[in-house]
Design a protein that fits this description.
It is found in: Cell membrane. By secondary structure, the chain is mainly α. The chain is built from twelve helices and no strands. The protein has helices spanning 2-32, 36-41, 43-53, 65-92, 95-98, 101-115, 119-130, 134-157, 163-170, 175-209, 217-226, 230-258.
């Protein structure tokens, strides 16, 4: 009897949750003024878009090689610059090295501030300041990489073995010597792994930076969409997908070999 009552209770509970979800959905639709009827009313436009999208313009592929190479170059240079600045800051953001909680807290706050700025917003700001071009994309990627890698690096530093640090300090080593000879060897493989992971993320991110004028293949994608040239949009998307898949595969292999 008790088992039957428990089953009925669970059934009513699930029904109540479903009703609440439906009511929340209806309230959200009302608050956002979402008109799904309009979406289905444009089914003709969707059909036209998809019918042209599934017919890529392969004759345009040769013209995408240079922009795609530029996108990869942007990602690589931005990643290297970001990592170069992230390494010293990551050491300063941890009390393992500084032994000063206030100093490390300041650097962590700055890193948190950098990470809160979305990529596209950052790119738009740099375009307004420095103008349109690949250099703006490199700066955007560098700042994004700096914030992400610094966070990962100082967290890795805080999980190391303190034995080598205490041994080095006992023989009178300076903080710089401790960082170079006692800490860096323990986290070097992780640092390299994070760098390849950042490059992998940046290749995907850099393809959309062109929407705000930050250079790369995103500029061509944006212009093709604006001109309603969906056959070219299709081949651009395919090129991006293949490139990103190859970079992901290479990055995954390198990171597995390091960890």
């Amino acid at each position: 009897m008790k088992l039957q009552e428990t089953v009925h209770f669970k059934w009513y509970k699930h029904l109540l949750i479903l009703i609440v979800l439906v009511l929340c959905f209806q309230a959200s639709v009302g608050l956002t003024s979402a008109d799904f009827a309009m979406v289905f009313a444009n089914s003709g436009q969707m059909t036209d878009f998809l019918s042209r999208l599934i017919h890529p313009d392969f004759s345009y592929l040769s013209k995408l090689v240079t922009p795609m190479v530029k996108t990869l170059q942007m990602s690589l240079v931005g990643t290297v610059i970001g990592v170069a600045f992230a390494i010293p800051i990551s050491f300063l953001a941890t009390t393992v090295v500084t032994e000063n909680r206030w100093l490390s807290t300041i650097f962590r706050f700055l890193l948190g501030l950098v990470r809160t700025i979305p990529n596209l917003l950052l790119a738009a700001l740099f375009v307004a300041i420095f103008g349109i071009g690949e250099a703006t994309g490199v700066l955007t990627i560098a700042v994004f990489t700096f914030g992400m890698i610094s966070q990962l690096m100082f967290q890795a530093i805080e999980t190391i073995d303190y034995g080598p640090i205490e041994a080095a300090a006992a023989v009178g080593a300076t903080k710089l010597q401790i960082a170079v000879w006692s800490i860096a060897p323990q986290v070097l493989s992780q640092f390299v792994s994070y760098m390849f992971y950042a490059f992998e993320v940046n290749v995907r991110a850099s393809t959309v930076l062109g929407y705000v004028g930050a250079g790369g293949i995103g500029v061509i994608l944006n212009s093709s969409l604006a001109l309603l040239n969906y056959e070219r949009v299709s081949i651009i998307i395919l090129t991006i997908l293949v490139t990103v898949a190859l970079v992901d595969k290479l990055s995954e292999r390198v990171r597995r070999s390091l960890l």
